[in-house]
Amino acid sequence: MTSDMREDARFPGVAIHVSAYVDDPVRIGEGTRIWHFSHVLADVVIGRRCVIGQNVMIGPSVRVGDNCKIQNNVSVYQGVTLEDEVFCGPSSVFTNVLNPRAHVSRRSEFRPTRVGRGATIGANATILCGVVLGRYCLVGAGAVVTKNVADFALVVGVPARRVGWVSRAGERLGPDLVCPRTGERYRRTADGLELVE
Q1: Number of independent structural domains in the chain
Q2: What would you report as the CA-atom Rg of the chain, rounded to the nearest whole angstrom?
Q3: How far is it, in rounded angstroms, from Cα 108 to Cα 119?
Q4: 117 in a structural domain
Q5: Which of 133, 134, 125, 59 is nearest to 93 (CA)?
Q6: Residues 153/146, Cβ–Cβ less than 8 Å
Q7: How far apart are alpha carbons 144 and 59 in whole angstroms?
Q8: How does DSSP classify residue 13?
């Protein structure tokens, strides 16, 4: 562990930068690293072996799965759930209400947002509250997601629309639905794609 990282007795096996703040109560899994100027608010659960980049805010009451990577300048607000192995690119944005106004309190209107296992959110993408991002989907950089995204879908644009399919390895799939990296085969379902076991 470098000299600017510390271990906190509350979280054995977790490395926290000296400039980061972690409120109580919080649960953080072993092997997780929290970097410069980040803030983890109360009632957050972060899984094992996660990387929380610089200037990240999480919470309150957020769930982050195992092996997630949240890059710099991301705020993960109340109502967001990240399942295992989610990647949030730099400056990606989550919202928690649809029509915010500075002078109108909408805390009772927060809408839940779920990001499925293995999903990737590109840099500067915006995820509107209330949507579900399917397992292993890939949201292109700068996209604005306004509706649910199917498992393994590749979505881009404003508003985001599906332009193809990707594998668990993040490779774009051709018409044969075979991953060029791993050889895994996929098939269409009513809700998107699924891996052929």
Answers
A1: 1
A2: 17
A3: 28
A4: yes
A5: 125
A6: no
A7: 22
A8: T
0.70 cut: is pTM over it?
yes
For 24, other C-beta atoms within 10 Å of its C-beta total 8
Strands (E), 12-70: 15-17, 21-22, 26-28, 33-34, 39-40, 44-46, 51-52, 57-58, 63-64, 69-70
- Judged on CB neighbours under 10 Å (0-12, 13-18, 19+), 188 is exposed
Q: What CATH number has the domain bearing residue 150?
A: 2.160.10.10
pLDDT tens by residue, 57-115 = 999 999 999 999 999 999 999 999 999 999 999 999 999 888 889 999 988 888 999 99
Residue 10 lies in a domain: yes
191 pLDDT band (50/70/90 cuts)?
confident
Domain that holds residue 29: 5-170
Distance of alpha carbon 176 from its chain centroid, rounded? 29
The length of the chain, given as a count of residues: 197
